[in-house]
């Protein structure tokens, strides 16, 4: 009898998980994709990272030549920081790889049929509303249903101030091949170029900036009257689960953690959890090691976000003063940053800089990013 693993949810995390499991689990496994078709995707558009594209390549034979247009996606070469310093600069992707900007309204209808065609024996797709995971009769479950309703088993990291987003889209094609990340007096603004629209998100802390003030400032930047801005907006707390595996149920996506979308760092963790899921299903690692490795990845991501913020920006507003103070305090306690610095210095002294373990980016990219931010952690 085949062993079964159900993936509940088909957002970007659920789809990445399905591609990963179809690729790396052998034919002794049955993979069941479960989703409620009444639950609509958050149609903002999304910036991804190379592991997402890698999952598509192996999961559905995706290639940018044939499939970019039908998936309504664009190529991403990195994230460009504007007004964080006097000069603009790019945060490149790992080792010069590429990623995608995706339309979250379109990806499910593109990916699921191709998964079914590629893996007809291994994959089953069900439309079902799931309220109680324990009622599902499968050996294992990967929970990608989105935000938790109870935060008692989650950690809310200090110093992550961004918790609200205003969204506006221009109905014209995006013209860049990077995600824009522009500092504002209230936080920062992303822009995501897609073939059919260019989406902007104004990110701020609603404990520091009122909604009306944020809308006024967003309106001024986009040169769109406040009354004509899209009505889409989101509130989101920052959190991460204390554990993401209990012996039968794994968590991924927003069910596992949620950080602000800067440089799409969170998608690295989706990939890390998926690697751990496969290792866990094959019993290559115990649950204690699974959760330890997950916490290591999520805390490194948290500290990388602090790294971006702790040098401030070109603005000396209340938000930036508070962000700089709080992230600097937290980053001083970061064992992950200190290890990355020690690794960098050790391998440069040894004459083997290319062998430096990556924090998020390989040694040369981290060195350039560090220089652009005006820090002095990863300089010889």
Task: Chart the SSEs and their pairings.
Blueprint: E1 3-8, H1 12-24, E2 29-35, E3 46-47, H2 50-60, H3 64-67, E4 74-76, E5 78-82, E6 89-92, E7 99-102, H4 107-118, E8 123-127, E9 140-143, E10 154-155, E11 164-170, E12 179-184, E13 187-193, E14 198-204, H5 211-222, E15 233-235, E16 239-241, E17 249-251, E18 257-258, H6 266-281, H7 287-309, H8 318-331, H9 335-350, H10 363-373
Parallel strand pairs: 1-2, 1-9, 2-8, 5-12, 9-17
Antiparallel strand pairs: 3-7, 4-7, 5-6, 10-16, 11-14, 11-15, 12-13, 13-14, 16-18
Structure description:
The protein has 380 residues and is an alpha/beta fold. 35% of the residues lie in helices and 21% in strands. It contains ten helices and 18 strands. It has helices at 12-24, 50-60, 64-67, 107-118, 211-222, 266-281, 287-309, 318-331, 335-350, 363-373, and strands at 3-8, 29-35, 46-47, 74-76, 78-82, 89-92, 99-102, 123-127, 140-143, 154-155, 164-170, 179-184, 187-193, 198-204, 233-235, 239-241, 249-251, 257-258. The strands form four sheets. Strands 6-5-12-13-14-11-15 form a seven-stranded mixed sheet. Strands 8-2-1-9-17 form a five-stranded parallel sheet, covered by helices on one side. The protein has a three-stranded antiparallel sheet with strand order 3-7-4. Strand 12 and strand 13 form a beta hairpin. Helix 1 runs parallel beside helix 6 and helix 7 crosses helix 8 (318-331). The protein is globular. The N and C termini lie far apart (57 Å).
């Amino acid at each position: 009898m085949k062993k079964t693993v159900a993936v509940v949810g088909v957002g970007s995390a659920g789809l990445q998980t399905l591609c990963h499991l179809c690729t790396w689990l052998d034919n002794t496994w049955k993979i069941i994709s479960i989703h409620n078709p009444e639950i609509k995707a958050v149609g903002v558009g999304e910036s991804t990272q190379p592991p997402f594209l890698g999952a598509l390549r192996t999961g559905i034979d995706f290639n940018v030549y044939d499939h970019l247009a039908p998936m309504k996606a664009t190529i991403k070469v990195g994230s460009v920081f504007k007004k964080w310093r006097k000069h603009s600069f790019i945060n490149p992707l790992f080792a010069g790889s590429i990623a995608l900007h995706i339309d979250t309204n379109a990806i499910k209808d593109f990916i699921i049929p191709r998964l079914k065609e590629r893996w007809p024996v291994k994959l089953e797709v069900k439309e079902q509303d799931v309220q109680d995971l324990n009622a599902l009769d499968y050996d294992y479950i990967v929970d990608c249903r989105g935000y938790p309703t109870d935060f008692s088993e989650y950690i809310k990291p200090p110093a992550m101030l961004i918790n609200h987003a205003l969204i506006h889209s221009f109905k014209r094609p995006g013209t860049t091949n990077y995600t824009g990340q522009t500092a504002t007096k209230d936080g920062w603004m992303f822009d995501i170029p897609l073939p059919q629209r260019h989406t902007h998100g104004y990110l701020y802390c609603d404990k520091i900036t009122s909604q009306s003030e944020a809308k006024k400032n967003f309106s001024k930047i986009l040169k769109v009257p406040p009354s004509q801005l899209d009505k889409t907006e989101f509130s989101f707390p920052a959190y991460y689960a204390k554990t993401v595996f209990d012996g039968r149920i794994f968590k991924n996506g927003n069910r596992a953690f949620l950080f602000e979308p800067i440089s799409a760092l969170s998608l690295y963790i989706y990939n890390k959890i998926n690697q751990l899921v496969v290792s866990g299903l094959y019993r290559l690692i115990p649950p204690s090691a699974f959760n330890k490795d997950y916490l290591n990845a999520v805390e490194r991501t948290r500290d990388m976000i602090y790294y971006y913020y702790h040098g401030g920006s070109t603005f000396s507003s209340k938000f930036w003063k508070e962000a700089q103070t709080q992230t600097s305090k937290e980053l001083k306690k970061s064992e992950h940053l200190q290890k990355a610095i020690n690794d960098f210095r050790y391998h440069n002294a040894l004459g083997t800089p290319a062998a430096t373990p990556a924090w998020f980016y390989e040694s040369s990219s981290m060195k350039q990013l560090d220089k652009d931010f005006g820090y002095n952690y990863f300089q010889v």
